Amino acid sequence: MAKLHFDGLADNDDEGSLDDFLDGVLALPVSTRIRTFSLKCNHVAKYDDHINRCLCEVMVFILQIKVIKEGYYSLPLEIFTCKTVEKMKLGSGFAIDFLPADALLPALKTLSLDSFQALVSWMVLSGKVGNGLGLCLVRPFKD
């Protein structure tokens, strides 16, 4: 299985190579299984759709994302229903704008968060390591 890594944080002018990396990922046959997908880069808004397609269309077992941006990069909803991700490491620079009602990561064994901004009022992470992770919204209790 392939390991795909892109670290554009060390290079100030990473736009061209980021474009090449993302195009290469999207050019892979649908049946390709990716052991590790690691993306570290400065945020470039014009690549958001490209990055989201890579995250959603490639079968990944280990997902590592760190995007440096003023504000936050919003993760695609499909990330929260991925059935193949076993290990997810999310660095700084991302946000959870919306959580789908069917959020479930059945294969997830490890979740590492450097920091995150959740734009939902209440969120509960539930599950045991090795048994998947369920995510759900909980409404605040009113007296």
UniProtKB/TrEMBL annotation:
InterPro entries (alphabetical): FBL60-like
Superkingdom per UniProt: Eukaryota
PANTHER family assigned: BNAC06G06520D PROTEIN (PTHR31293:SF22), RNI-LIKE SUPERFAMILY PROTEIN (PTHR31293)
Name of the protein described by the UniProt record: F-box/LRR-repeat protein
Species classification: Eukaryota, Viridiplantae, Streptophyta, Embryophyta, Tracheophyta
